[in-house]
Each structure stands twice: as C-alpha cells, then as structure tokens.
# Entry
Amino acid sequence: MEKRRSPWIAIVLAVIIGLMVIVLLNAYIRPTTVVVARIAIAPGTRLTSDLLELRTIPMQAKPRDAFERIEDLQDKVLAVGRAPGDAIVASALGETAQAGIPANLQSDHLAVAIRVDLASGIAGLLREGQTVTLIGLLSPDVLQSVSVAPAPFNPALMPQPTTEAVVAGLPTPTPTPTPTPAPPMAPLARIAISGLKVLMVPQSFRYEELPPGSTEEQLFASARTVSAAQDGNVIVLDIPATPVEVVPGLMVNPTTLIVALSEYGSLYLTLEPADGFQAPDILTLNLADLYDAMNVDRGGK
# Structure
C-alpha cells in the first residue's frame, strides 16, 4: 500500500517561497513614500494638506527632488500645475528661479503679460498650453498723440534756378513743396503674430459653468469672478524675440510690438485650431477704405 504524502509539506514550501520572493522584491524595489497631488492643482495655488496625500512607490521611480512629508509643503506656492497622482517636486514650486515658467522658456523666448477682458480674451475659454493669434488695432488718435520730427532740410533736393534766369537777373522762384498723399486717418486692424503659446491664465478669468442646484454662495462667487474678468485681467504668453516682418520691409521684435500694442493700441486674441493655424495672405484693414468701398457699391446699385 502506497504511503500518502502530507499536504502540509507543500503548504510550508509555498509559504517559504512566497516569503523569499517578498524579501527579494523588497530588496530590489525598496518601496518609499512621496507626496503627490490628491486632486488637480492649478499653477499659483498655495498648497495645503487637503490638496496632498502620501503614496508608496518604488525607490527607482522616486523623483530626485520629491518630498516625503506633507508638512514640508505647507503654504508653499505651486508654479507648475499638477494632475492627480503627480509627485510634488521642488522644481515645481515658485521659490526657485528655475521653477515654473522660466524653466519652460526657450533661450530666444520671453514671457509677456498682456491685458485682456472677456471680449479680447475669448470669454475666458483660454487654458495653459493653447496657442493664439493676436490681432492688433491702432486708432488715429494714437498716431496724433505721437510727435513726429520734421524731415531734415537738404538743399541739394531743392530745384535750382536755370542758367537763363541767372543771366537775365530774374528772381529765383520760391520752391513750393508738393504734398505727399496720406492714407485716410481711420482705425487699422491687422494680424500681428500667430502661434503664441498661453503660459498662464488666472483662475478668476477662467470660464466655468455652475451645476444646477448651486448654493447662493457659489452663485455670488461666480458673479464676483465674472465681474472681475469684465473689468480686466492679464494672461501670460510665450513670445519669440526673433524679429518678424509684419508688413513688407518692416521688421519688428514681436515682444516690443505686442507690448506697444497693449499699451497704445488694442489687442484681440483668437484661439487657434489644435492642429495649428495656417495663415493665408494677411492684409491690413483700413476702416476708411472699407467705408468708401461700401459707399461705392451702394451708389452703383
């Protein structure tokens, strides 16, 4: 009769093998604890314990400048947005010069803040990472407020008296300047530059719908946010500093152009497609020319 083997031997061997696997994995993986975002956190947010949580990860996956205690991040300001589960690292905080926006700028780009409202800022639909095209507007009153120096006098360009007039002793006629035709004084609009990346949009300027059944406090907060956005706000754009040709023969630095238009003219943002904007032939719109053309068409009918 064959002797029946005890099942306890297999159980003990399985337990021993399992413990050995656990020990080996712990020695290789070496789990550690890091602080991660519990929810999505926008740039500029002051960190509090209710926004963070601890998570165990392998030592090999731990970022070099990650934090291991929530207390170390209390009241720190986040410079780079974090998604749920993202580790909070020192380079994402606003206390270092290399954190946030400066770390993401190319060597020939600058971050520039411009004023917007609900109309010029696409009704608060802007978000970080989108690209926009700027349309600049200039009014005649801006040009009239800028003093233009007269052209220097050059006698060589003046008409000279003829030999017959000199011999006859006739008086030299006084030259009469010929007026240069000037374009009609009217507001002008033109696409200034395309492909500009949005770096920062204040939370108070973002468009948000309130769910049905919102409390009175939520409705009041939303109304206050919309009112602040209508009064004006600022966003930050990533602008290249390489000169571009805005009109044939006129090269300008995009950063100085946008700052000048923001200060002395008007800027309107247009949201570009996700696949990029293919600009056709760009023409300057002169409202006086448009008015004349519309009048001609109306008179011809």
In short: Residues 220 and 264 are 35 Å apart (CA to CA). The chain has a mean pLDDT of 74. The longest strand covers residues 188-200.
